[in-house]
Amino acid sequence: MYNGLTWWEQIDNGKQLTPNRKFLTIVPVILYLIASHTTEYQHPVLFFNTIAVVVLVVAKFPNMHKVRIFGINSKY
């Protein structure tokens, strides 16, 4: 049943927008805000942190369910 699914897709049997998923989506954003504040918003660090948090949050959108970027973890 779970063959080929990522850890994120297996949470709550694939149901979208559950409290668990919302919490795990907010965690990277909070860590981003903490990291940005502690590095005093320095340009290179802020740029890399912003890219990382965007990638992490976009990957968790409901419309990205079972989408494989660059064929990673693809059955075909």
UniProtKB/TrEMBL annotation:
Location(s), subcellular: Membrane
* Keywords in alphabetical order: Membrane, Transmembrane, Transmembrane helix
In terms of InterPro entries, this protein maps to:
ORMDL (IPR007203)
Instruction: Name where it mostly resides.
Output: membrane
Q: Does the keyword Zinc apply?
A: no
Q: Which GO terms describe its cellular component?
A: endoplasmic reticulum membrane
Topology of the protein relative to the lipid bilayer: Multi-pass membrane protein
| One protein family per Pfam | ORMDL
Instruction: List residues traversing the bilayer.
Output: 45-62
UniProt keyword annotation of Phosphoprotein present: no
Q: Which domain of life is it from?
A: Eukaryota
Q: Which PANTHER family match?
A: ORMDL PROTEINS
According to UniProt, the name of this protein is ORM1-like protein 3
- Protein source organism: Gossypium laxum
